[in-house]
Amino acid sequence: MNEQALQQAVEQIVKQALAEDLGGRGDITSQATIPDSVRATFQLTARESGILAGQAAAHATFAQVDERMAVEWMMADGDGFDAGSVIARIQGPAGSILTAERTALNFLGRLSGVATLTRRYVDAVAGTGAAIAHTRKTTPGLRALELAAVMAGGGARHRFGLDDAILIKDNHVAVCGGVGEAVSRARRYAGHMIRVAVEIDRLDQLDEAVAAGADSILLDNFTLDDLSAAVRRTRDTAVVLEASGGVSLETVREIAQTGVDVISVGALTHSARCLDLGLDA
Predict the structure, then answer these.
(1) DSSP string over the chain
(2) pTM of the full structure
(3) What is the pLDDT of residues 211-256, one digit of tens each?
(4) Boundaries of domain holding 19
(5) Out of 89, 102, 120, 253, which one is annotated catalytic?
(6) Do 90 and 145 belong together in one domain?
(7) Out of 137, 185, 195, 253, which one is annotated catalytic?
């Protein structure tokens, strides 16, 4: 997704999030207690260390609530911060700032959590040559933001959606009657412009996948010994090997040391913890 498309997605996602929070009447608490003439300055502060992501969504939240707010960012997506760090300062009508507060923090906390977890995986495989990639196990409707957060954490791009590349999974193989047949059908459909990847779950399927013309082979839940064997057997080919399944921070470096090119980790997006960030007067 290019920058223009990402920004369009951000604007739409923020619009939907604000509609969910504001309902039909808006922030009736701020309306009831704070005159529109009251202005204030708030600091967006980290209450734990991490990696920033979600700046665009938070900025759009403040802008959509009230264009009179001014947001000064002290850091950008991908920057690390410690507990107590000031991430941004927001000035403007106090009621508007408080109206935007929770939605902005939801975006920042969730997406910074994704970036922070991604960075931990990237650091764990440093020096091995293996890339850490996301999967499609994302929150429906939020994929553009969550995958941007993976990038902010140092992760690698995978498929954004089903139209990006052909990835033959185990159920496709079962319906087609085998790895070779599935890859051959995909290769004929794709021509030379679309990459073809196939998931295998046994080492004895590897040669069949290579012979049928797979560009990438996803090694699903392979043992370390079988991963190493797959690397040796494809060393003289251009095939990209991707390990997946059962990957954790405790196991990822051993997997990387087998020589695979990519390690895909669904946990980056489906299991990241929301970081504790706050807005303080």
Answers:
(1) --HHHHHHHHHHHHHHHHHHHHTTT--HHHHHHS-TT-EEEEEEEESS-EE---HHHHHHHHHHH-TT-EEEESS-TT-EE-TT-EEEEEEEEHHHHHHHHHHHHHHHHHHHHHHHHHHHHHHHTTTS-PEEE--S---TT-HHHHHHHHHHTT-B---SSTTSSEEE-HHHHHHHTSHHHHHHHHHHHHTTTS-EEEEESSGGGHHHHHHHT-SEEEEET--HHHHHHHHHHTTTS-PEEEEESS--TTTHHHHHTTT-SEEE-THHHHSPPPP-EEEE-
(2) 0.95
(3) 999 999 999 999 999 999 999 999 999 999 999 998 999 999 999 9
(4) 3-119+273-280
(5) 102
(6) no
(7) 137
